[in-house]
Structure formats: structure tokens, C-alpha cells
Design brief:
By secondary structure, the protein is an all-alpha fold. It has 16 helices and two strands. It has helices at residues 9-16, 65-71, 73-79, 125-144, 200-211, 217-242, 248-251, 254-263, 275-280, 304-314, 320-333, 337-341, 345-352, 358-374, 393-403, 416-427; strands spanning 103-104, 110-111. A two-stranded antiparallel ribbon has the order 1-2. Helix 6 runs parallel beside helix 14 (358-374) and helix 10 runs antiparallel to helix 15. The longest helix is centred in the middle third of the chain and has 26 residues, at 217-242. Mean pLDDT is 74; it is low at 23-32, 43-47, 75-79, 91-100, 102-116 and 431-443.
Amino acid sequence: MDIRKFFNPAAAVQRDASPLRQGPSGAAKSKKRPDGADAKGKKATKLRGSPRKLPAATTHRRESPRRSRDANPTAASAALPQPAPLPKPATEPSPEPATPPATEGKGGSLTTEHREEETPPGLSEYEQTRLKNIRINQARLAELGLADGPATPRSPPKAKAKSKRKAPLPKVPLPPERRSKRARGEKPDYSGEKIDRFGDELDAAAARKKHSPGKTMEEIVGEARAVLLKSRDMLKSMQGSTRPTDTSVAEKDGWFKQAVHLWGPRVADVWPPSWEEYVTSRLSHPPPPESPYLLLQEFFAEDTWKLLISCVLMSRVSSVETKTRCIGGFFQNYPTPSAALDANPADVLKIISGLGLFETRWRSVVAITQRFLEMPVFTVGLDKETKVYGVGEFGVDSYLIFTQHPAGQTMSPADKNLRAYCEWLKSLPETSGVRVEAGVKSE
């Protein structure tokens, strides 16, 4: 249902003037019917508790005018209920020309300023009423100022006046706060003394280091020779205090011959209390089996001195080819501790120069060789009594794993290669090695 018909004041006046709303005297009718039933057709009960008799319910389905019109416009117009004619007054006034329906103004009065336009032919009574209400509502909206009127063109925006740019001020060069030391031909303002003396010692040390030339090859070789001669003198001083007057019996001992055979004639410079302990403390117990890792220490596991020397020479070197070439060349020219103490430092420098840090490495080689020859019972550790210059944690772990077998089966070194080797040893059911006995040649 179109709700706009409720805005039609004329329809409201016509509804109030309907005979259904008024009696013969013009008063409003009562809602009750003469038979005692109400407006809905229900009778009131006479006695309380008596059975209620209701008339047969009849339902009337009112079809929608719109649906009826769509199906059959002629039938829809005929089916609509026709309003009852208005009652005629006692004295009929003279006929007047028809006027358009009045509309209610803003103050409640009716105005007739809007005339009814022509109605298209062929419309039903419902459509004519609907069209009339639409026109009245449009007129009402126009009076209230709510109707959509023709669009009024807007005036174009006024162009803003362009602001005149001010001319830039001329740049005036500021006087420099201080003179740059990069300026050519300009002398500094200060007289030469240092205001802030922070870092003067560091500057002086850097200046000395800058102007001091590096060591020449002759100086490096001379210092290496001095280290070697000092080690030889220490061994000779020990020979005078420990060497017996009659050495014929000791020289016939098989352990003495074994020591000279393995480590050279400089063994005779030291006379330990027991040659057997001297020799056995320097041998592998027994050497471990070869592993799939092929570590460099495995090639020197049967000779403790060579094992420690190789650990010193391979330290801080990543190239396998350089380590193999330099270490192999050193042992080829100096196979025993006695030969290393009789070496010429210049020749050694040519062999191991590719490893770098020659001064430190040569000093470590001499210190290991001296301790290896002079100790009655040889051992290496990290404590003060057994510490050897140049042998750190890596060298001590290598010494225990490869010469004091099976100590490696219970170790977990910090070096990843040694740790992998120890894990491999733990996985073996049994390990065996050959211990070098007295009088047996060992390569």
C-alpha cells in the first residue's frame, strides 16, 4: 500500500464525512451492533460460565488492488468497494464551478493555489486517486521547500590573486669561525703547544713504530741462532753434573743404545738415573690405529718429539698443502732432536717460511727439543712443572691421544677434529698398537 495517501488532507476530510462515521444527526455511531455483537462480529456472553455460541466464522480475503489490476484492470476496478454518496443537505446551494481539492497550509488553513492537471484516460478509480494524491503531495513538498527543483548553476570560483614573490636577499658571506688546517699557505693560530695531552703516549708509540724499520733477514736469523746456542749450552751444563766417570757399563746398556739411535748423539749430554725410564717415557704406549680421518698427527704418532714439533708448526695454518710441504721438509732435513739443535737457522727459515711466524715457531722448536732431551722422565702438560713453551691445549691433547693410548677413549677435546677422532676410538671394540721395545729400530 502506498503510504503517501496519508498525506492527503482531502482524503481525510472525505473519510470524516463518510456516512459510516456519522449517524442520522451527524454524530458518531457507536461501535456496537444492535444484536449485541461488537465491531468484530463477536457476541457478549449473557451468563458467566455458560457456553459461548459464536457465529460461523467467515473469512474474506481481500485481494490487493495492485495484484487485481495486473491480472485484469477492468475486473479490479469493478471489484473495488464504491464509497457511499455523501448525504445531501436540506437546502441545496446553487451550483458552483468545480474547484481543485484544497490543501492544508502551514497554519492549518486550506489553500487552492494548485490546480488539478489533466488525468490520462483509461485509468481505474484507484489509479486516478493515487495520481491525485501524488500531485497534492508534490505541491505540499514544494511549499515546504523540499521538492527537487531545477539545478541552479554555481558561479565559478574566484581566481586567487597571485602573491608576488619577494626578491631573495643577497647572500652575505659569514666570517669563518676558525681556520681550516687544509688551507694552503696558512699557518695555525696556536703556537705549537698541545692543549689536550690525552693520547700523547699512544701518538709517540705510533710514531716510533712508523719510523722504526722492520727486521732484516740477517737480524731474524741472528736471533734464532742465539736461541739455539743458548739451548746447547744448557744441555752441556747438565752433562757435567749428571754424567758418571765410568760410562763403559752404561754405553753397553741396550736402553742407552736405543736412545742414541732414536734421538741422536746429543742424548749422551744428559745422563739420567735410569735409561730405561728415559726411553720408555718417550715412546708411544702403544700407537693408536689409523682412522678414516687421516689426521696429520697420525703420521707422527710413533715419535713423541715429531708429534709435538708438528703440532707447533701446523698451528694457525689452514692450507693442508703448505703444512704437509713445510713439515715434511723439516723432518727430512732434521729427523732427530740432535739434528734440530745442530741446524742452521737460515736453512730452517727457508724450509718453513711458508708457515709464517718464524721467530715464534723456531723458539718453540728449540724449547721442545731441549726439554725432550734433558728431562729424565718426559711428560707434557698445562701446569707449571710440565708446561713447555709453545705447547698449548691442542698440543697436550694430541700428545695424550696419539702417544698415551688408550687415553683418547675417555677424552672430549675442544678441537673438532680431535673430538671426532676420539668418538671414532670409542666406537671401536678393541684397539691395538705396537710398542717399540729396546734394541728394536723404529721408523
